[in-house]
Design goal:
Keywords: Oxidoreductase, Peroxidase
Pfam families: CMD (PF02627)
GO molecular function: peroxiredoxin activity
Largest sheet: none
Mean pLDDT: 92
CATH class: Mainly Alpha
Shape: globular
Low-confidence stretches: none
Protein name: AhpD family alkylhydroperoxidase
Structural class: mainly alpha
Organism: Murinocardiopsis flavida
Number of strands: 0
CATH superfamily: AhpD-like
Order of helices and strands: HHHHHHH
CATH architecture: Up-down Bundle
Distance between the termini: 24 Å
Length: about 160
């Protein structure tokens, strides 16, 4: 499959992607565990059907030492016993934040309270921004039909 648009060669898209990447990098200083960030981005990418992001975040998580069983179970996290209570709260927030159109009220108070129970304000901000950023990246990739499978861990910095 060929992409409809090369997001890195097109001057407008490349500039926007550079800013999005820089914004996402700011989250690293939040104290939100890298593992949680990877699980959340993977789950949102699965929901949105973004093969390029599923490929990237799975490979990056594996390269960082994440357990392959946990990555396999992200799609069925509610039934899986391999996630902490905090990770489960983050995954719930990610799902509701990704599926905003499916819920008349957006993200539920219960989902927010569950995340707030485990994460401080900086970490919550990182979760919210991370969920928003990955949804943006998913939409860019899905709209332009970016191919998946060829990503190398750490390729984008």
């Amino acid at each position: 499959m060929d992409a409809r648009l090369n997001l890195f060669d097109n001057p407008v898209a490349a500039k926007a992607m550079k800013h999005l990447h820089s914004a996402a990098m700011a989250l690293e200083e939040s104290g939100l565990p890298e593992t949680t960030q990877q699980l959340v981005t993977l789950r949102a990418s699965q929901i949105n059907g973004c093969g390029a992001c599923v490929d990237m975040h799975t490979k990056d998580a594996l390269a960082a030492g994440e357990n392959p069983v946990r990555l396999t179970m992200v799609a069925a996290w509610r039934e899986a016993t391999v996630f902490t209570e905090a990770e489960r709260a983050a995954l719930e927030l990610a799902e509701q934040g990704t599926r905003i159109a499916d819920a008349a009220g957006g993200v539920s108070d219960d989902a927010w309270a569950g995340a707030a129970k485990h994460y401080d304000e900086a970490q919550l901000a990182a979760l919210v921004c991370g969920i928003a950023f990955i949804n943006t990246a998913n939409r860019l990739n899905v709209i332009t039909q970016q191919p998946a499978g060829g990503y190398q861990p750490g390729q984008w910095g």
